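Methods — Computational structure assignment.
A single polypeptide chain was analysed. Its primary sequence is given first, followed by the predicted tertiary structure written as structure tokens.
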Amino acid sequence: MRYFLPAISVLLLVLLSVHAQDELDTDELRLLLEDFVFEDDLAVVLFVSNGTESWIGARGLADIENDSAVQSDDLFRIGSVTKPLVATIMLQMVDDGEISLDDLIAEYLPDAVVANVENADEATVRQMLQMTSGIFNYTESDIFDDATNANPNRAWTAAETIETIYGEESYFASGTDYYYSNSNYNLAQMIIEDVTGISLADNLETRIFQPLGMDSCFLETPERFAQGIVRGYTQDDNDNWDDVTDYNDGVGMADGGVICNAEDLAKFLPGLRDTLLSEAMLEEMLDTVDDGAGGAYGLGMGYDEGEFGMQVGHDGSTSGFQSNMVYLPDEDIVVVILTNNFDSDLVEELTIEAQAIALGEY
């Protein structure tokens, strides 16, 4: 299944350069946000950059109960947008000679995991990061679902989530297909912490956040659970808003546990090129497989042909939040959207419209 898309070599060259753009139409961006979000809607923060200029806007409610308006620097859970950050750490470890992408993950995992998780004895580090391991997704586990419903505030560890898939059948033999499984990245967390001897939170801080000046960002831990962030919501069967911020469905881990504001999160994708990864590791990250839905997936990085050409990035959703982080490397355009509305369908459309304005095609 592993292959290079024809455009990957071109994409890599573009990622290694910077393109100056025309002036951003900030008035159009402001009107766009006003068109999509009313003041009494749930919160949306939109950040747009064209490599030389940036704009950020915020609209809606950060807290319904207290009628608090969102601010542009407010903190949100970013969900699975965490995954490319974690993959970057592992690629840095590859560059440092600490691991190899073609190592079996079994070399770094506890014996109990290897014995009880199907495919844990045959999947490689690359396959784990690329969602081709075939390992069962813990968020589809009845054991995990029942446990979170019984105790919504339980603080999970990565190892505990993996225990919920003991005995579950794999989706396929490792390396033969693609299936998006959050278990892969909680296994990655276990490997990172075992090899480096420090927590994932500290690895993110020293390897990602500090070098890029992502000062607002951190991995949510039990000690900082639901602190300092906007409230997250979902709709019940009667279309009423339920505050689910304190519902812990596995946040705080490598599959989706980072908290960040929009402006800092927008530093990550350009930072891959400028600071975080060598050219060789960036090429590995962008070595993709077909995701079965019209796009492709690399090592923690989505890749597809969008409305305005090839784009890389990731989206996410968790406990009352949605997020999107997209980079158009041909034009050096970054769009980040954060919302505390788990049920919103505006994220994809707003991303496209913001890209159009940044390109002067709106």
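Note: The chain has 13 helices and 15 strands.
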